Amino acid sequence: MEKRVHRLTFYHPKLEKIAGCVETTYLVGGFVRDRLLGVRKECVDIDVAVPDPDSFARCVERELSLKPFSFEKVKRVYSFVSECFRLDISGILGDTIEEDLKKRDFTINAIAVDMRELFLPFNDDAVLIDPTGGFEDLQRGLIRPVYESAISDDPVRILRGVRFKLELGFDYHSSFVSQAETGAPLLQNSPSERIRDELVKVLKRDDFFKFLRDIDGLGALYPVFKELQGIEKIPPSGVHQFNLKEHTLKCVELLETYVLPERERVLGRYGKTLGSSELFPGFTDRECLKLVALYHDAGKPHTVAEKDGRLTFYSHDKVGAEIAKEALLRLSFGKKAAKLAYTCVKLHLRPFFLYQLYQKGELTDRAIYRFFRDAGNYAFHVLLLSVADFGATSEEYRGELPLYESFLKELISFYEDRLENLKPLLSGREIMEILGLDKPGKCVGVFKEKLLELQALGKVKTREEAVKAVKGFSCEDTDKQ
After folding, report:
1. Domain co-membership, 85 together with 109
2. Distance CA 20, CA 55 (A)
3. 383 and 408 in contact (C-beta within 8 Å)?
4. Do residues 79 and 24 both lie within one domain?
5. Of 100, 147, 172, 179, which has the most beta carbons under 10 Å away?
6. Which residues contact 390 (CB under 8 A, 6 or more apart)?
7. How far apart are CA 309 and CA 400, in angstroms?
8. Do both 85 and 4 map to the same domain?
């Protein structure tokens, strides 16, 4: 029986504009799926399959007055991109559109519409070309692979399937679960750029923590994030109520569901800009911080030891910083993301140490200053991470979050009053002149930093005091630590 829907289901003004190019042309993929579900997005991606993509692309270029770019996947793809619109043109795999559809990932993405039907006069309907039962799976809300080896042929489809399940609110068909569990180990051999692209799409949403739990249940967590292997073996210890794996997942969840939505309340005006720094096109520091939360304790399995009947993890922050940096580079997130991860993981314990000093009445301005000095541009990322880490430690600590956040406001107030507009009273060249040096050396940088610290602490306020302080410095007694 033919499956018919009203042709206006697939109306888009850009499609009408290229109607003159349409011969044997099929709408396929996510655009068809979303329109059948009644989902209309402000920004759309439209995929079409044609026998001759080269000539079709030339026609579209004329009609849209747009230059395409092309790339190779399984086949050559021509992409036309304008504001909130993307059209991808590719060839048909096989002799017919039905053969092409039977090679795709999931049945819900293996439905096509002949575009000629959309422009025929006196025609209200379009016939769905659906050889794999995708329309029925859309109605039942199921993620089902098109064929038996769909996932082993391309293991990244596991990540796509989990993403679709979360985006659409669907369930997994039993065949997806069985194929995913078998194919999960193959993910470690998949191209990192393709894995990254799937992760970015999920990281932009607010349910990355659900994604992590789903891929973990399918056996795909460690094949994707191999550096986390072993976190499941670290039991609850000290103030930690949960084993390390559960703590890690709870940390990501708390960051995503509580900390990031509340970042302006937690950080004041400094929370407004978090998420505005693009680390590469389409990926910001906000998304990256979720990966940082995932890797923040990655050093613990490598540093675990026992002392006096208790587990210790000395230097897990430093070891973990290297692990996080290398992980993000391996996953093709780039140097900027790796630097953010390295700094945040290396310093993720520092706010807790300051909090302990604060509770004892022993917190000094110098300790606060050195935190902000060491964290640099990532100080507020570290503070947000610390809130999630603190709250994920135990139910007791979760209840103590208001107190911890009040303490953070003390740090932020110090930054606002003392550091935000802090400028050195003397330049490096002026320090050289005072010391009678002909060329810069290591000591000049040390002196400049030490002087800036004294300014922040209110011990040096004028240029004259700065000159006097520099004359009293020596390389031996200006250790930053």
Report:
1. yes
2. 13
3. yes
4. yes
5. 179
6. 352, 397, 400, 401, 404
7. 27
8. yes
Q: How far is 12 from 85, CA to CA, in rounded Å?
A: 10
Measure Cα distances from 81 to 44, 93, 201, 381, 402 in Å. 10, 23, 18, 33, 46
My answer on whether 387 and 456 are in the same domain is no
- Cα distance between residue 240 and residue 217, in whole Å: 23
Please count the residues of the chain: 481
Report the alpha-carbon distance of residue 285 to residue 344 in Å, rounded. 12
126, 9 contact by CB (below 8 A): yes
Q: Which helix (H) or strand (E) holds 127?
A: strand 125-129
Residues 194 and 336 in one domain: no
Other beta carbons within 10 angstroms of residue 94's beta carbon come to 12
Structural domain ending residue among the three candidates 203, 224, 245: 224
Both 282 and 402 in a single domain? yes
- Rounded Cα distance between 107 and 176, Å, is 11
Task: Give yes or no: residues 130 and 145 share one domain.
Answer: no
Integer Cα distance of 192 and 417 in angstroms: 44
Phi first, then psi: what are they for 305, rounded to 5°? -150, 170
Task: Please say which residue of 121, 140, 159 terminates a domain.
Answer: 140
**Burial tier of 437 (Cβ tally within 10 Å: 0-12, 13-18, 19+):** middle
- 255: its two tokens: 């960051």
Element (H, E) at 367: helix 365-375
User: How far from 281 is each of 166, 277, 278, 336, CA to CA, in Å?
Assistant: 24, 10, 6, 12
Residues 456 and 380 in one domain: no
Neighbouring CB atoms inside 10 A of 203's CB total 21
Helix (H) / strand (E) element for 152: namely helix 150-153
Q: How far apart are CA 425 and CA 107, in angstroms?
A: 67
Say how many domains are in the chain: 4
Tens of pLDDT along the chain (481 residues)? 689 999 999 999 999 999 999 999 999 999 999 999 999 888 899 999 999 999 999 999 999 999 999 887 677 899 999 988 999 999 999 999 999 999 999 999 999 999 999 998 888 899 999 999 999 999 999 999 999 999 999 999 999 999 999 999 999 999 999 999 999 999 999 999 999 999 999 999 999 999 999 999 999 999 999 999 999 999 999 999 999 999 999 999 999 999 999 999 999 999 999 999 999 999 999 999 999 999 999 999 999 999 998 999 999 999 999 999 999 999 999 999 999 999 999 999 999 999 999 999 999 999 999 999 999 999 999 999 999 999 999 999 999 999 999 999 999 999 999 999 999 999 989 988 888 887 887 888 889 999 999 999 999 999 999 999 988 887 665 444 4
Question: The domain spanning residue 116 has which CATH number?
Answer: 3.30.460.10
